User: Which sequence fits this backbone?
């Protein structure tokens, strides 16, 4: 018999880890297994054609929040054309299996963990009579490494997903992880070290740990990070942390890790104590913000912090306080997420208590609660857009630091949003020149020092390595200034220690900056008046 595993990923650079585990686990059965990965943007005809050409005896589809609508459409087409057993697994079907079976009587649902359930199906040659199969899994340590040698040999510049533990020790009511029967199942740490060493040698750009809380066991987390720090690799390791469990030892060990080797995603979610209690989340907000700040202050790793709007007891003003507390920790990115009422979560059964209204179709996003209106949540969506343009892009960091020194970051975003509405600015644009021009005009409207703001924008342009020509409207004399600097460099390169190892022919590739406002802080560019960016080096040259 031929068994086909199909993934419909949200993005082309994503990969389905669950199906890879299943494939490798089934090797000892000698079953013929084929794995196909497409995306939710793949035309329906191509998806159906892929299944038709393989002509499997059994089709296994991984279903989650972002592809469930497409799966429902494709099921109707496939069942009318192809005769095979169809099995659905994944979080989107595990907690409302009966509903899926009522809609599609021909399917069988694999609920929760899949390895032993799929093995049972294959051992029976798909003659199982149950409509819902949920077999207990063996310990995670008995599950094979998910990647083949062939996949690793072609992994250069790709993102590879990995988990060193399964399950979650916490009970956040909005999260599906708390609904699974398994809590924490750890993979042997020596095996973890060996496996991430193998992944790092593949040339992949990122190894993304999908552990729900990487630092739940602090001793174990520190040991893995020490191992990562010793690897000879350019691979970046992405880790998800709970801020409350970031220890002094954890922060101390980070000091010995090469810059850029790690990046962190940290769930902050809310600073409202009543909200945190309502959703069963253990967290001291002030302490958590301080832990995030301490990692950010290292200036070695990208720090991404998450917020959730629409949680119980969190009104607009409360969310504003939450946002500003997190912003004070200066993470590199603030992800403003919106509560989703996932089938199977505890909060789904409590939505009437909190007055939660949400979309009925995936991703089931909240549109109103007892505490926050639809209009206020819509405004937060707009703030999220302008947050991405001016803050999360990291292209205007010093400019935004300067502007938000006059008020809180949230107040600034509200003010920018208001000005965008007045001026007709597209808040979703990511074009550097458009955003820069918008910020310059905003400063004029607020009667701020335009020359000083222009200096900050120029500095951000030089240090953020934005592609394209130097913005004329910020520095109209730039070309003249550039020629002056080049002349100086060519005549004085022998006397300049900062230029050692840089050939004069490379000078034309330099980006130059000189503050024109006397109020521009010299701490940004040293005691010198001219700085230059050469590749990844910021040089004070005059």
Assistant:
């Amino acid at each position: 018999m031929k068994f086909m595993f199909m993934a419909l990923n949200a993005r082309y650079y994503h990969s389905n880890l669950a199906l890879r585990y299943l494939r490798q686990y089934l090797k000892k059965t000698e079953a013929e297994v084929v794995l196909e990965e497409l995306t939710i943007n793949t035309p329906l005809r191509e998806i159906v054609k892929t299944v038709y050409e393989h002509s499997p005896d059994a089709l296994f589809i991984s279903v989650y929040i972002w592809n469930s609508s497409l799966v429902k459409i494709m099921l109707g087409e496939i069942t009318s054309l192809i005769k095979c057993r169809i099995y659905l697994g994944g979080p989107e079907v595990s907690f409302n299996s009966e509903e899926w079976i009522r809609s599609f009587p021909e399917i069988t649902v694999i609920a929760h963990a899949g390895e032993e359930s799929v093995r049972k199906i294959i051992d029976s040659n798909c003659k199982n009579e149950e409509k819902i199969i949920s077999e207990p899994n063996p310990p995670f340590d008995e599950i094979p490494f998910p990647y083949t040698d062939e996949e690793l040999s072609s992994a250069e510049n790709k993102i590879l997903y990995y988990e060193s533990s399964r399950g979650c020790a916490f009970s956040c009511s909005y999260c599906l992880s708390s609904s699974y029967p398994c809590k924490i199942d750890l993979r042997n740490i020596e095996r973890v070290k060996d496996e991430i060493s193998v992944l790092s040698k593949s040339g992949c750009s990122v190894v993304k740990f999908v552990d729900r809380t990487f630092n739940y066991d602090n001793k174990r987390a520190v040991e893995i990070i020490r191992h990562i720090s010793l690897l000879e690799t350019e691979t970046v390791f992405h880790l998800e942390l709970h801020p409350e469990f970031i220890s002094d030892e954890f922060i101390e060990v980070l000091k010995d890790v090469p810059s850029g080797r790690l990046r962190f995603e940290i769930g902050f979610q809310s600073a409202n104590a009543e909200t945190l209690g309502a959703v069963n989340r253990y967290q001291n907000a002030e302490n958590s913000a301080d832990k995030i700040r301490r990692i950010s202050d290292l200036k070695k790793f990208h720090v991404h912090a998450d917020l959730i709007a629409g949680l119980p007891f969190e009104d607009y003003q409360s969310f504003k306080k939450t946002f500003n507390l997190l912003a004070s920790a200066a993470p590199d990115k603030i992800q403003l997420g919106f509560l989703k009422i996932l089938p199977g979560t505890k909060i789904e059964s409590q939505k009437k208590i909190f007055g939660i209204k949400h979309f009925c179709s995936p991703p089931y996003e909240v549109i109103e609660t007892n505490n926050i209106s639809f209009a206020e949540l819509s405004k937060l969506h707009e703030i999220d857009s302008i947050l991405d343009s001016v803050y999360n892009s990291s292209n205007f960091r010093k400019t935004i630091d300067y502007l938000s020194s006059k008020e809180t970051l949230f107040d600034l975003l509200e003010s920018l949003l208001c000005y965008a509405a007045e001026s007709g600015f597209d808040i979703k644009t990511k074009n550097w020149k458009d955003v820069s021009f918008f910020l310059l005009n905003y400063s004029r409207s607020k009667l701020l020092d335009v020359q000083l703001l222009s200096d900050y924008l120029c500095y951000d342009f030089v240090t953020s390595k934005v592609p394209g020509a130097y913005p004329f409207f910020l520095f109209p004399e730039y070309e003249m200034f550039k020629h002056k600097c080049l002349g100086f460099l060519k005549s004085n390169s022998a006397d300049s220690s900062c230029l050692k190892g840089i050939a004069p022919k490379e000078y034309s590739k330099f980006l130059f900056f000189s503050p024109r406002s006397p109020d521009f802080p010299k701490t940004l560019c040293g005691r010198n008046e001219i700085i230059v960016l050469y590749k990844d080096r910021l040089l004070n040259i005059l």
Remarks:
- The chain has a mean pLDDT of 91.
- DSSP finds 20 helices and 19 strands in the chain.
- The radius of gyration is 27 Å.
- The longest strand covers residues 2-9.
